[in-house]
């Protein structure tokens, strides 16, 4: 069976973690779709500011339903980040935790592939009352590059920041003012 996960932030990585546990996991061919910046991390957990803390205690954060302290354990074992008061960690640290699991899975399992092309269209071509659907994912206009799937998980999460006043890129406009003081 062919499976696609579109969007590899928190929801996408969580879906993948659950699929890996499934008894028929080895029978799945899984393609992961997201851009290189967001793959495994998602928009809210980018490397932006160490002042932007997660509003949940670090010891209570986890993508693992069976171990609510998994993020804390990961933080204590890794060597890239060290904060004096880690009770509430910056968002980007959680992003690196998610990315580390995605990296581990893509290296460990040959049936998982990453695709950094933007999904332009998803459609199905079916008759009324048909239950066995085939989903088509298009990343280009060329029919030869369209991929077919038995199952598709749409895990798009948070969309890009909207700039209704067109302030992005203007001088003296800082999205995260505290980090520029």
Would you give an account of this structure?
With 181 residues, the chain is α/β, with parallel strands linked by helices. It has one domain: FAD/NAD(P)-binding domain. The chain is 21% helix and 16% strand. It contains three helices and seven strands; from the N terminus they run βαβααβββββ. The strands form two sheets. A four-stranded parallel β-sheet has the order 3-2-1-7, with helices on one face. The chain has a three-stranded antiparallel β-sheet with strand order 4-5-6, with no helix packed on it. Strand 5 and strand 6 form a beta hairpin. Helix 1 packs parallel to helix 3. The longest helix is centred in the middle third of the chain and has 18 residues. The chain is globular and about 60 Å long. The protein starts with a strand and ends in a 27-residue tail after the last strand. This is Pyridine nucleotide-disulfide oxidoreductase family protein. Pfam families: NAD_binding_9.
Order of helices and strands: EHEHHEEEEE
CATH topology type: FAD/NAD(P)-binding domain
Q: What value does the Rg take, in angstroms?
A: 19 Å
Helix content: 10-25%
Overall shape: globular
Number of helices: 3
- How far apart are the termini? 53 Å
Strand order of the largest sheet: 3-2-1-7
Q: How many domains make up the 3D coordinates?
A: 1
CATH class: Alpha Beta
Number of strands: 7
**Which CATH architecture is right?**
3-Layer(bba) Sandwich
Unreliable stretches? none
Please identify the structural class as seen in this structure.
alpha/beta
What does this entry show, briefly?
By secondary structure, this protein is an alpha/beta fold.
């Amino acid at each position: 069976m062919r499976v696609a996960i579109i969007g590899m932030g928190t929801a996408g990585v969580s879906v993948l973690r659950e699929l890996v546990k499934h008894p028929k996991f080895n029978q799945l061919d899984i393609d992961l779709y997201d851009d290189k910046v967001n793959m495994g991390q998602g928009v809210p957990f980018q490397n932006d500011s160490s002042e932007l803390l997660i509003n949940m205690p670090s010891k209570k954060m986890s993508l693992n339903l069976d171990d609510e302290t998994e993020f804390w354990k990961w933080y204590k074992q890794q060597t890239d980040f060290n904060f004096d008061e880690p009770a509430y960690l910056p968002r980007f640290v959680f992003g690196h935790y998610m990315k580390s699991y995605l990296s581990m899975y893509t290296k460990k399992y040959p049936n998982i592939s990453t695709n950094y092309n933007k999904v332009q269209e998803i459609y199905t071509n079916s008759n009324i009352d048909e239950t066995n659907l085939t989903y088509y994912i298009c990343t280009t206009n060329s029919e030869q590059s369209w991929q077919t799937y038995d199952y598709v998980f749409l895990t798009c999460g948070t969309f890009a920041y909207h700039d209704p006043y067109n302030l992005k890129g203007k001088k003296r406009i800082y999205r995260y003012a505290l980090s520029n003081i």
